[in-house]
Design brief:
This protein has about 130 residues and is α+β, with helices and mostly antiparallel strands. It has four helices and six strands; from the N terminus they run ααββαββββα.
């Protein structure tokens, strides 16, 4: 795949996510795709590694039942080679159970192969997110 094709795939993922179209997000993932949310295991309901589309869908369900996202923005997309897109952005949200707000800059790393995301890793400000769950 070309750099521009990979950029377009990631842009489509963000467009679908902001519209709440999780099925369209999942269509961009390989059947055996992996989603990693880098928080300590068990620290939040959606922390850890989710393998396969059904488990990635479960991540979205867990996240959506735990967090109300109030602001989400992608600031930069960096494309490298045939298989890597890195996105830098910011998110504000509120934890549904605690009512506490958080804000975090984030880094999303997309590994692509054959026009599909095979691995996604999300890095956030762990202390900010964890504090909002307390």
């Amino acid at each position: 795949m070309t750099n521009e094709t990979n950029r377009k795939i990631v842009e489509e993922i963000y467009a679908a996510f902001t519209q709440g179209d999780i099925d369209a997000v999942l269509e961009q993932f390989a059947d055996e795709g992996v989603w990693i949310y880098t928080m300590p295991d068990g620290s939040v309901p959606f922390a850890g590694t989710f393998e396969g589309k059904s488990r990635i869908a479960e991540w979205f369900r867990l996240f959506g039942s735990s967090v109300q996202t109030t602001s989400f923005q992608t600031n930069h997309l960096l494309v490298d080679g045939d298989d890597l897109v890195v996105a830098l952005g910011h998110e504000d949200g509120r934890i549904i159970e605690s009512g506490k707000a958080y804000n975090t800059d984030w880094v999303h790393v997309f590994h692509l192969n054959g026009g599909k995301v095979v691995k996604f890793v999300e890095y956030v400000d762990v202390s900010s997110v964890l504090a909002s769950f307390a």
